[in-house]
Amino acid sequence: MLDPDYALFAAIAEEGGLSAAARRLAISPAMVSKRLVRLEARLGARLVHRTTRRLALTPAGECLFEDLRAILSALDDAERRVTGAAVEASGLLTVTAPTSFGRMHVAPHLGRFLDAYPLVTMRLDLSDEFADLIESRADVAVRIAADPGAGLTAHRLATNRRILCASPAYLARAGMPASIADLEHHRLLAAQGQLPWRLTGPRGGVNVDGTSHVRTNSSEVARELALAGVGIALRSLWDVSDALADGRLLQILPAHEGLADVALFAVHLPQPRPPLAVTAFIAFLQHLYAPAPPWERPAIAPAPQAF
Questions:
Q1: pLDDT of the chain along its 307 residues, tens only?
Q2: Between 243 and which of 31, 70, 172, 248 could a Cys-Cys bridge form, CB atoms 3.0 to 4.6 Å apart?
Q3: What single-letter DSSP state applies at residue 184?
Q4: Does the predicted model carry a pTM greater than 0.85?
């Protein structure tokens, strides 16, 4: 049996506040605060930063919480084995993902996952920033990157092909680029930090530098601008495959694509025995995107070379 004060601290960390933990444990907020102070005194370390607006774990609290999560998961599995109960994924599963990708390729499938694992409850947080798994209390992060993050357990889910594309209206107006050098005379579209573009082609790697015709901090805005005929964008296939299929966007310079070092990963904090909900969700994503992700087409029709 886990020390009651440790269980109380785990509830505080999972719920994100003393009052929420009190409701979960059916005790008063004052009692939660008193027992937290008692645990901190016993350990000789502050575990929680208390402010009027939010609760945040200290570095010591983060370390303790991660250890407790592994212990609680192991205890739950052991109890189920001893009692003969089926070991089943359960509990709150917090997932973070990039905004567009999460909206397009994670959220639509969650119903199937939750039907398969009815004891799991989910929280899905979408952000284009790399979420700190400890600070955000996330169990799984979906990341699109060359490096999924040091010190994390990473599961590669799929490749991330990126192609140059523009709308037929823009190409009719501005002309078809015949070479990478021609891009210098075109309007480029990219979110903040996405230029220069690092491409690979028949002669190896090449960089395309410049300034986005519209400055934005949103990758979704860059996509919408390309669809609206404002310029040329370097987009992931998962983001534009539908628009390519129905002709709203056309691939240009098909011999050149974004470097293949960027991929799609699911990451979590390293644990000897990850919670079953974590392993089940990652296996679910792997099944969704294998052997080839749904946005990968057998062939993408390039733009015609003249209008």
A1: 568 888 888 888 877 788 888 888 888 888 988 999 999 899 898 888 876 456 778 888 888 887 887 777 677 666 666 655 556 788 889 999 999 999 999 999 999 999 999 989 999 999 877 777 766 778 999 998 888 877 888 899 988 899 999 999 999 999 999 999 999 999 999 998 889 999 998 888 899 998 999 999 888 999 999 999 999 999 999 999 999 999 999 999 999 999 888 889 999 888 767 888 999 999 999 988 887 888 885 545 455 544 3
A2: 248
A3: G
A4: no
Ramachandran assignment for 304, one of left (phi > 0), alpha (psi -120 to 50 degrees), beta (any other): beta
Structural domains of the chain, ranges and CATH numbers in brackets: 4-83 (1.10.10.10), 91-159+262-289 (3.40.190.10), 162-258 (3.40.190.290)
The span from the CA of 207 to the CA of 226, in Å, is 20
